[in-house]
UniProtKB/TrEMBL annotation:
Source domain of life: Bacteria
Protein name: Uncharacterized protein
TM helices/strands, residue ranges: 20-42, 54-75, 81-104, 213-232, 253-276, 296-321
Keyword Transmembrane helix part of the UniProt annotation: yes
Length: 338
């Protein structure tokens, strides 16, 4: 443990090397996909799939050059800007990774392994690039802040994100309990899940009247409030063997950032699309629903929940990040002078 602690305290030194190794591997991954014709899109291929593979190569090459320069010359201001640019590009590439994670958790296979691997690699790179951009920040001489609640405005935003998930969870539980919503029965929805390759666990929970996505929504709300309330900075009391221990900052921030980066743009873009579909400007498929109106109703419930929760999660994560930043300790020299 002592060796691990020393190694971790020196992370600013190794993180740039780790970022450079990731960048080389990511560029190689994109090049392999481009040359082999493997599509990084879920559906289709052709010119768009090839362009995306070469875009991955470009991001990897940029990250390689910038992180290599940081290793060689140190973190200069211009390099820091380029690191954040590469981080943003990697974050965009990792869009909808959370959907893949949820799909795998529910026992269904992803539509494209290459696309899912690309998103996972991009998410890892975004974390490494951000860590490298901040690697010159001093870590010594700091103290842990006492747990604190988020400002009232942030907590009000958390309430909005929570309440907008209520109709979504109620809709899912209505289907799971065998009821009918938007013209489709619970049995029909269960048949759709079976046709889409849902796992035995998913189907068993639905047979018990529990929808797994509704349970995930409850966990998401728990995460949201853990970011804005003081108890979220320590392990809950019911975990007796961990009672009173402080939560590492990355533990809630990692899923929060992943969820915010996926759900906020997914919901906002979805609301824009549904607005056009409701106005008749674009054609929307009704899918498994019996009418377009039913499909629009379910779509609005889902997208409003995703957008509001994603935005609330973004605001809460930023507040948590600022409130849990290590505070500088007063130096011994200043204490003795007093």
């Amino acid at each position: 443990m002592a060796l691990w602690g020393v190694w971790w305290q020196r992370w600013p030194r190794w993180v740039a090397w780790a970022t450079m190794l990731w960048a080389v591997a990511y560029a190689g991954f994109g090049l392999a996909c481009a040359l082999s014709g493997a599509s990084l899109l879920y559906y289709g291929g052709g010119a768009e799939a090839s362009e995306l593979s070469w875009a991955v190569v470009a991001v990897g090459v940029l990250a390689t050059l910038v992180s290599g320069a940081a290793v060689r010359y140190g973190l200069r201001p211009a390099l820091r800007v380029l690191l954040w640019v590469a981080c943003g590009l990697a974050g965009i590439t990792a869009f909808s990774l959370l959907m893949d994670v949820i799909t795998l958790m529910l026992g269904q296979g992803v539509d494209s392994r290459a696309a899912a691997a690309n998103k996972a690699l991009a998410a890892l790179g975004a974390v490494l690039l951000a860590a490298t951009a901040r690697s010159d920040r001093p870590s010594a001489g700091t103290a842990v802040r006492a747990p604190s609640a988020a400002p009232q405005l942030v907590q009000h935003t958390a309430w909005v994100g929570t309440l907008t998930f209520v109709p979504y969870a109620a809709m899912k539980l209505e289907w799971a309990s065998g009821g009918t919503f938007a013209g489709i029965t619970g049995d029909e929805m269960l048949a759709v899940s079976e046709r889409n390759g849902a796992s035995g666990v998913f189907l068993t929970l639905q047979s018990w009247g529990l929808d797994p996505t509704a349970l995930l929504a409850v966990l998401g709300v728990f995460l949201l409030w853990g970011l804005v309330r003081p108890w979220g900075q320590v392990f809950p009391g019911w975990m007796l063997f961990l009672h009173g221990r402080r939560v590492p900052r990355w533990l809630p921030l990692a899923p929060a950032l992943l969820g915010a980066a996926t759900l906020a743009p997914y919901g906002v873009v979805g609301i824009g699309y549904l607005t056009l579909a409701t106005a008749g400007a674009v054609t929307m498929r009704r899918g498994d629903f019996h009418s377009l109106g039913d499909a629009l109703l379910v779509g609005w419930i889902g997208m409003v929940a995703f957008a509001a929760y994603g935005i609330a999660l973004t605001i809460a994560a930023r507040s948590y990040w600022l409130r849990t930043r290590p505070a500088r300790r007063m130096s011994r020299l200043s204490v003795s002078a007093e």
